[in-house]
Structure formats: C-alpha cells, structure tokens
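Priority: low. Protein: SDR family oxidoreductase. Input follows.
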Amino acid sequence: MRVFVTGGTGLIGSAVVAELLGNGHTVLALTRSDASAQAAEAAGAEPLRGGLADLDVLRSGAAQADGVIHLAFGNDFSSPEALAQNVAEETAALTTLGEGLVGSDRPLVTVSGTPWIPGRASTEADPVPTDGPVGGRSRTVTAVLGLASRGVRSTSVRMPRTVHNEGAGGFAGLLTNIARQSRISGYPGDGTQRWPAVHALDAAVLFRLALEQAEAGTAWHAVADEGDKVRDIAAVIGRRLGLPVESVPEETYGPLGPIFKADQPSSSTRTRQALGWEPKHPSLLEDLENIQP
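Result:
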C-alpha cells in the first residue's frame, strides 16, 4: 500500500515508517519543517509539507494514499488550555481525514490511550473514557470508529501510558525529564499505581497489522507490560540519574496529574490472539537502564 502517515518522524512514527517500508509498503509522510522533511526522506519516505492544522494538505495526503495512519499530536502539556488546543487540532484533522476516505473502504488507523477500569486490567472491549483532560480525544476516536458504517475501514490502536525506546518516551520519559529539572525522581501518591507500557518497535508492528488486517470499527491494545508500578519506574530513573526517589504532589504534573495518579493496567490478550501480535523488545524497566546520567 501507499500509506499517508501523520507524525511519521516522532518516536512512534519513525518506528512505524520503518516497519511499513520494511514490509513492502511506501510512505507519504506529513512533515512540518525542513528538518522533518529531511528525516522522512532519509528514512525512505516521501515528505508532504504541512501540519495538522493544514486541512487542505491532509485532504491531499489522504487522496494520494491507499490507507492512512494518524499519529501526530501536539506536545504542549503545560496547561489545560494547551492540552485542549492539542485535542481540538487533532479533532479537526481526523474529521478531515475521515471524510476524505468515506465510501472508499480504505483503512484509517488512529491512536488513543488504553482506558482505566477500577479493580482490573482494561481490555479491548472496554470503552475509552470521554471525560477528564483528554476526554475530547476519546470522543473523536469513537467518531472515527463510527465511520465504519460509511465505508471507511477505521481502526484504533490504543497506546499505553509509556511507549519507549532506548529509555526515552511516554509518561516515563516525562518523569525522567521532570526528575532532571527538579533533582528528585518523583511519583504521585504511594506509587503503587500501575502503568502499562510497550516498546516503540513492537507498537509499530501492531500499527502495520491493523492497517493490513483489522476489520472496520475495531480497537486494539498495544500493551506489552500489563502494568509497572510507578514507584518502580521512578526507582530506576533515580538510580540512573543518581537522584533521591520520593513521592511528590500530584500537582507537580500539571493537567496530567490525575492521569499520572490513576491505577490503569491493561491487557492485550485479544489483540495478540486476533492479529498474531507478539511483543519481542525489552520491557520498560529493562529499557530505562539506557537512561544516561
């Protein structure tokens, strides 16, 4: 397939582009800058200049492709307003991409987070929460899956709280960055809450499988580690950086504080069985050993 990919030069996107190219697909990658365009070309993809707010560019990219994988999302988590702006921008972009594929039976693979269910690991059958700091994102993804009734093979790959590679990425990466700044490797609450995780290279395989195989209107879990305790994550970060490991106020993490504090293990049993996905790369706690002091 010729696949239009948004966010194709980020931590996850670069792995997805490599996975697609390594399995016989070609890639048209949305790129916001000269540097991103050069990175896409170096990886073997064709760049298409523009950002998520450039809706005409998105229409053009979707029209040129046999399928779409959407990964791009704003990186500003500094305030509730910034997060809301990220969600609004993505909503407009996904609406545009989806409308461009109506009636074509082409695949549209998008991304959301794994849900959290009190007392147990979430599964692919559980709905994503539509309230909270990123509830708008879940509502948008739900609408995209609804395009299955309009001739779009829409699917969603639900990502865990940490997608990692070489010690970087995801919520664990945010913990590391905050630890470097504050000189404390912190965690909210008592740290027994669990975060699911996946290596970026394993997640990339699942995006390809969803593009190639998944039925319309389905959701899948890119979960390798069902749930690592946050204080265990902080302990590795603290040891690697030579910092004390302590509980810190939830407010330390701004608008993401309530999410950081939640216990949210997740299962990928159905995904593994239905799509034949099997994670092979290092676990989160193993990968965090790559953090450089």
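The chain has two domains: 2-162+197-225, 165-196+227-266+282-290. The first helix runs from residue 11 to 21.
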